[in-house]
Amino acid sequence: MLVHFLQQQSATRFLIAFSGGLDSHVLLHLSATLRATYPQWHFRAIHIDHGLQPASAAWAAHCRAVCEVLAMPVVNVALHLQIPSGASLEAEARQARYAAFAQHLQPGEMLLTAHHQDDQAETLLLHLLRGSGVDGLAAMPAVRAFAQGWLGRPLLTCSRADLAAYAYQHGLNYLQDPSNADTRFDRNFLRHQVMPLLQQRWPAVTATFARAARLQGESRQLLHESLQEKLPHYQGSRPGTLAVSQLRTASLALQAALLRVWLVNAGFQLPPAKKLGSVLHDVLLATADAMPCVHWAGCEIRRYRDDLYALPPLVAHDSTQIYGWDTQQPLVLPSVGVTLVPEMLGAWLPIVRDSGSAVTVRFRQGGEIMQLPYRGGSHSLKHLLQEAGIPPWQRECLPLIYVGERLVNIVGVLQVNP
Ligand SMILES: Nc1ncnc2c1ncn2[C@@H]1O[C@H](COP(=O)(O)OP(=O)(O)OP(=O)(O)O)[C@@H](O)[C@H]1O
């Protein structure tokens, strides 16, 4: 089954996530035995030492030794985790583990983990217990994009018993993590208490659950494809935004699904159900002049006029700063993440260079004026920004380029020539 899985992939380089436990030891061993017959495939392993158990350094040494015997190149990563008080140790370790995998995965390489059918059944149940929808119930896909390559799970069709039989047959010496027996953890409780009971009555329950997850995965994919097709019809007036009025014509279920796809496309973490509800009720239904904001880890949803924005949290910025600019080099403005280049001065550049006029970059304080000769006279910055539809939270962060005391460029919005 590993051969069949690998033959279906476009990748030819594989990084095996090797914890030293039964499942990943079998995966490592199977991969090592394939090398003679399939020289086009290249394998290496990675072991992460989370440093959370007294024996973890000895486990890392064991993994190194196993890889040496199998002549398998291995990357050893030792993590020094600081677990914030109140945080879940498991969740923090997992996050750090996947960050390390991502860091070491080469472009076009596929990370292989040893998740199997029993893991899949447990994952499905855990999601069911959390009240997940199709995304969660699809549990773990066999292949998904990951970092600069992919994450593949070639053993999803094998049961734990199959893997144990293989390990026994080949005399594999694998590690047993004592925490796997601790039924205070939900997954272990399902594994040791719930699944055996279900198996007494429905012997094929593990395979059945895994099939249910696979079917949900297919539904998820169809849904995803159809939503990606629909999304452009809901585009707002500015790049990356959604049109509130258009969204409101959709059913509630479609609104929620479109929001999720939009957020995932933009690389944001999905909101908890309650937050998504707030976006649907408080933001989409707000009056046109309201400026609601809903936020969760790494994301803020804001609305301005008819556009819905998803943004990284705004960082505090000192708008009283004034930068002098010699216009010879680009000017980096770290507080707003913008770099100005001399060409932004347009026809002012030769004048500035000849006359030696001072060029400064400022931010909005209130009361600024811009002269627009082609529209006759002076216009307030506030009015010009409103006219250009710039949302209020962006206004304080827009660099304003001055030649002497004359505002000549509202960066990204409006520029005037001499
Ligand atoms: N310390 C580790 N070093 C390298 N690979 C690991 C390590 N721990 C886990 N893995 C990989 O992840 C797979 C799943 O491990 P495990 O079931 O312990 O993790 P989980 O937290 O339950 O699942 P997930 O990684 O999906 O959250 C293992 O089969 C192995 O391939």
Automatic annotation (TrEMBL):
Gene3D superfamilies named in the record: 1.20.59.20, HUPs
The protein's Enzyme Commission number: 6.3.4.19
Keyword Nucleus: no
Highest taxon above the source species: Bacteria
GO cellular component terms, A-Z: cytoplasm
PANTHER family to which the protein is assigned, alphabetical: TRNA(ILE)-LYSIDINE SYNTHASE-RELATED (PTHR43033)
Domain comment (free text): The N-terminal region contains the highly conserved SGGXDS motif, predicted to be a P-loop motif involved in ATP binding.
Chain's role: Ligates lysine onto the cytidine present at position 34 of the AUA codon-specific tRNA(Ile) that contains the anticodon CAU, in an ATP-dependent manner. Cytidine is converted to lysidine, thus changing the amino acid specificity of the tRNA from methionine to isoleucine.
HAMAP family: tRNA_Ile_lys_synt
Protein name as it appears in the record: tRNA(Ile)-lysidine synthase
Organism: Thiothrix unzii
Gene: tilS
